[in-house]
Amino acid sequence: HHLFDGDGMLHSLLLPEGGGSAPAVYCSRYVETYRYRLEREAGGLVFPKVFSGVVGAAGVARGAVMALRILTGQINPLEEGIGLANTSVLSFGNKLFALAETDLPYTFNLSSDGDIPTVDRYDFDGKLSGNMTAHPKKDHETGELFAFRYGPLPPYLTYFWFDRDGNKQPDVPISSVSQTSFNHDFAITERYAIFPDIQLVVKPFDMVFKGEMILGVDKRKVPRIGVIPRYARSDNEVRWFDVPGFNPFHTINAWEEDDETIVLVAPNVISIEHTLERQDLVRNCVEMVTIDLRFGRVSRRPLSVGNFDFGVVNPRFVGKKNRFAYVASLRNDSISMPNLTGVAKLDYKEKAGVDCVVAFREFPKGCYGGEPFFVANGGDEEDDGYLVMFTTDVSREESKFVVMDAKSTELDVVAEVLLPRRIPYGFHGTFI
């Protein structure tokens, strides 16, 4: 069983407003996706698992069984979707969404008593088809949301955006993408959207004839970065820049230095060929990538020697020039997934040219965290605020909600909430 194949389970903590005396309320619920409901009723697996069930001849056989069930009307994934809603959470347009890039978003409610029931699969009034990234980017200033989808058939990559009221704008198919890459994340600036096109690709023939996973590394492919105007109506203005060895799964932020320069900050996955099966051999290096649009040049510099991922910034600075990033520190003890053993603060202005880590908090031995999230406290400075995250002590089977001072030199813990249940490993979240 692979972590990426798990059904989505939401975990929420409702805090009393204004520091009131009411207790915090914790809730966890599965996202009631079509897939989850069908398999719950069946008492077992109905759909193949992409990372742990679509391998070799057995994967082909599982696909054939699913096709037969579709043809006989037993299941209807073409209309209802097969997504897990297990990757991230989004607040947009007065709605809450559970996201996974293999399907449409699922909406859910946050009740006054802390409950988080699923509402429905959501297609934005019929304008969103197929699937959507689990990493859309929201512009804090305009309220707009920018997103994309990728898939196994042309167009392999499609870009789109929503106005602040949630109205989806027309699709922009990117015809210059010639195969299905693992386009997990992207970035925006005030005028552009930036797409890393990495070496991890869909390889169905290797699955069938070599018994490998459907996702694999194309060693002959040169990674590149695509730049398209943020409000483009076609892909005529897409520009691609080769960036050998640059394979980020996630981005941290991007901005424009001037009319002809774009800066992207992202953790680059080193030794990407091991990323699906031998995480103990993989490291991430946070890099600053500068793209000179005028001369078509790309330059790169590492920001730290640390093994960091799951980076966040003050949401007010998404797509705008910023100074600080907060990242999870990874320790690759396991061959399957790394453990998040701490959190670091990067300052890529003050520490330009040297290791950019200016604050670090390591969790106690046997305690692992999730993705940090920055919560502003209303101050004027970029790092005026708090880092919040869930942590779990595996020996005690005990989880906490932890609040850290984002401005302090050691990311001091200023509050903790002991939770009534252990929270299993997850991916991304948000603070509302």
Task: Describe the model.
Belongs to the carotenoid oxygenase family. Its cofactor is Fe(2+). There is one protein chain. By secondary structure, the chain is mainly β. 8% of the residues lie in helices and 37% in strands. The strands form eight sheets. Strands 25, 26, 27, 28 and 29 form a five-stranded antiparallel beta sheet that branches. The longest helix has 16 residues, at 56-71. The protein is globular.
Give the topology.
Blueprint: E1 9-14, E2 25-30, H1 34-42, H2 56-71, H3 77-80, E3 88-92, E4 95-99, E5 106-108, E6 118-121, E7 137-138, E8 145-150, E9 157-162, E10 172-173, E11 187-188, E12 192-197, E13 200-202, H4 204-210, E14 215-217, E15 224-229, E16 239-242, E17 253-258, E18 261-270, E19 283-292, E20 297-302, E21 308-312, E22 324-331, E23 339-347, E24 357-362, E25 367-369, E26 373-376, E27 385-393, E28 398-405, E29 413-418
Antiparallel strand pairs: 1-2, 3-4, 4-5, 5-6, 7-8, 8-9, 9-10, 11-12, 12-15, 13-14, 15-16, 17-18, 18-19, 19-20, 21-22, 22-23, 23-24, 25-27, 26-27, 27-28, 28-29
Helix pairs in contact: 2-4
